[in-house]
TrEMBL record:
This is Uncharacterized protein. One of its GO terms (cellular component) is plasma membrane. GO terms for biological process: long-term memory. Keywords: Leucine-rich repeat, Repeat. SUPFAM superfamilies: L domain-like. Gene3D superfamilies: Ribonuclease Inhibitor. PROSITE patterns: LRR. The keyword Repeat applies. InterPro entries: Leu-rich_rpt, Leu-rich_rpt_4, Leu-rich_rpt_typical-subtyp, LRR_dom_sf. It comes from the Eukaryota. PANTHER family: IG(IMMUNOGLOBULIN) AND LRR(LEUCINE RICH REPEAT) DOMAINS, LEUCINE RICH REPEAT NEURONAL 4. The keyword Ion transport does not apply. It comes from Anopheles christyi.
Amino acid sequence: MLTVLENLDAIWLNDNRISSIAPDTFHEAVNTTMIELDNNYLEEIPVELLAGLTHLRVFAASNNKIKSVPEELFLENLEVKEIRLSGNLIETFPSKFFAELPILEELYLDRNNIIELQEDAFVDCKKLRDIQLGNNHLTSISVRIFDQQQESIQSLDVKANHLSNIEFVKGLKHLTTLNLEGNQVRKLEEGEFDGMANITHLMLAYNHLHRLTKQSFRGLSQLMVLNLSNNAIKIVDPDTFAGMLTLKELYLNENDIKSLPEDVFEALGALEKLSLRNNGLEEISVTILQSLPRLQELDLSNNPTANIPDQFLQHNLNIERLSLNEVRLQRLSEKFLPVPKLMKIISLEKCSMVEIEPEAFMSFGSIFSSALYLRENQLTVLPKGLFRTCRMLTVLDLSFNRLTYLDPDTFSSDSSLRELYLEGNKIRQLTVGDLVIFPSLQILNLRNNCIEWISEALPSLNLLGLDP
């Protein structure tokens, strides 16, 4: 038993090698409000461990090896507000384990082996606000389990379980964050989220959804982040996102979407980030993005789309990050980026490009530090003046193209380039004059070229790659 504990407000025994603890260890700590035993080797908790600690607010024993917990552990701890038992081996909880916890607000039970929760498990916890149940083995949750928390729950995390039915969330009118990732949800029923207008973050990635309809998200008028990535979505109905006037981030990547209705994003005037990476999109309409004036990040990588229209970004003047990797472009015209001044990152890797028009990157990198990735294309030459206005371009990756030389006239006379990647090209010779226009250059990668000689000493670099 620890002595002289009466005046301690908090006891931290985290990150030790404690494998067992005596029942009377804390009995003298009658004024303690916090006990933490995280990251030890405990296999069990004595039923009397917290006896007499009537002022206890927080109890934590996460990341131990606890397989079961005693039913009356918190019998005398009516003021507990937070319990953390994450990262243990618990499969079930005794029927009255959470009884007599009237002001419990935060409950962390994620990363256990929980297979079942009784319907009345939380019936006495009417102020429960944040519940973490992710990474367990739950196959179902009773539709009435949160009947007493409809006015209190704000955050619910049940990711990485085996749930196919999510009816248990109905009625949680103050819920703001709902994480259902990594379950087995195949369909969103009509009215699934009725009465839950306060949800701002909804995560449904890594499920088995096939279709999205106008009823799928009905009533979610305050939604800000919607993650639907890594499902099996093939069809997105035109009005799917109707009413989502506050949505800022939409993730539809890693699905099987082959086409999208032209007006599918019409209601998303506040959208800032859109990911459609790794789908089956065969065509991009010139008007599909016109209702997204605030769009800042767009990822269309890894789609079989060919010949993206030159004007498809003409209404998206705030884009900062654009990724079109593995989209067949072949030729990049001067109209492709209408107003690229705000762009900070452009990634056009593996696009089968053979030609870039001299004005294609006009004004890109003229205001903000920027990066351009053009690796693994089929470029044999860069037109003179291509980067002449890109004075703030700091990273340029031209690796694995077919370039035979580096022409200084391609770049701005006051270039800020810091990293230049030319690996895997066909460059045969290098002179110091080729690099003198890059006074800030720190990294130069020339591996796997055909360089036979270097005419003069290279400038000081932090990293130089020349090996074959």
